[in-house]
Amino acid sequence: FDRANPVRTQGETLTAREVVDEGARQISTELDDEPIMKARLLATIGKVYLSLGQYDDALRLIEQSRELRSEHMPAGDIAIAQSDELLGEVLTATGDRVAAREAYERAAAGFTALGPAGIDGLTDAEGNLAWMLGQIGEFDAASAAIERALALARHRQPRLEKSLIGLLSNKATILANSGEPDSS
Asked: Contacts for 126-129 with beta carbons within 8 Å, 24 or more apart?
C-alpha cells in the first residue's frame, strides 16, 4: 500500500482498485511463510473486492483464505467458520445459490460448535442464509432460518439493535415475497 504514498507516486494518481490489486498481488506472493496472516489479509482484501462488486476477485481471494485457514488452523477455529460465512456472501452475489447455501450451512455448523463464542457469527450466517433462500423462493427454509437468527439476536446480551432491525427487515421481505405480508 506504500505505492499510494504521494511521495512515492510523484503526482501519479492511483485508483482505489489499483491499490487493492497491488495489495492482493503482494499478499499472494510475499506471505507464504506466514499462512495465517496471509489468510487474514486475503479475506480482508476479498471483502474489499466484494464491496467494489469485483466478485470474481473476491471469490478467488476468499477461497484461498478459507483453504489456508483450513490447512493451518485447528479444526473448529472461528476463523474457518467466518471464511465460510464470507464465502456464502460472495457466492450469493455471484448467483451460485447452491454453493452459497452449502457455505452458509458449514458456517452455521462451525459457529454452533463454538457455543457462546460463535453466537454472533451464527446469527449473521442464519440471517444471510435466510435472505438468500427467500430470494430464490424457498420461503419455508428462509422463514426457519430467519426465526433461528431472530431467536439468537433477541437473547444476546447486550442486544445489538442494529442487527435485530436488519433481521426483522429480512423477515418482512421474506414474508412479503412469500405472499404473507400480514404474518408476524
From this structure: 126/152, 127/163, 127/166, 127/167, 127/170, 128/85, 128/88, 128/89, 128/92, 128/104, 129/88, 129/101, 129/104, 129/105
Q: How many CA atoms lie within 13 A of 31 on its CB side?
A: 18
Q: What is the pTM of this model?
A: 0.82
Q: Percentage of residues in the chain with pLDDT exceeding 70?
A: 90
Residue 82 DSSP symbol: H
145: nearest Cα among 110, 101, 183, 178? 101
Which residues in the chain belong to E strands, given as ranges? none
Q: Give pLDDT tens digits for 143-180.
A: 999 999 999 998 887 777 788 899 999 999 999 988 87
Is the CB of residue 37 less than 8 Å from the CB of residue 2? no
